Amino acid sequence: MLARTLVSRALLSRFAKVAADHAKQAKRNAGHGVWTYRVPPPLPSKRATYLAEGLGGLCWFWILYHCATEPEHIYGEWPYIDPSTWTDEELGIPPDNEGPLRK
């Protein structure tokens, strides 16, 4: 009988502890960094700063290297044609002696 009472008390206390853990209010926005109010936020670690600077430098190297070695991505692949050299036929303009406004 004593063993039965001890077991039931142990189970009841364990159930109460689990119920209390579930009844606690969950922390809002947990894992989104440090929350501050009316004070500046803490500075990032030196490791994070150096990593961000290194990745930014690598990205700029990639962009500038490809601008220098493959400028046709920016300027186009063909030489620029002067529009004043195009004929009226190439532009789709009818001759002056045709159309409703001829004299």
Structure, described:
The protein is an all-alpha fold and 103 residues long. 52% of the residues lie in helices and 0% in strands. The chain contains 4 helices and no strands. The model has no long low-confidence stretch (mean pLDDT 81).
Layout of helices and strands:
Layout: H1 2-23, H2 46-69, H3 72-75, H4 88-91
Keyword list:
about 100 residues, mainly alpha, about 0% strand
Low-confidence stretches: none
Encode the helix/strand succession as letters.
Answer: HHHH
Radius of gyration: 38 Å
Our estimate of the beta-strand percent is under 5%
- The geometry reads as elongated
The overall strand count is: 0
In DSSP terms, counting alpha (H) and pi (I) runs of 4 or more, how many helices?
Answer: 4
- Give average pLDDT, whole number: 81
- What structural class do you assign from the helix and strand content? mainly alpha
- Helix fraction by DSSP (H/I, runs of at least 4): 40-55%
Q: End-to-end distance, in Å?
A: 123 Å
The major beta sheet can be summarized as: none
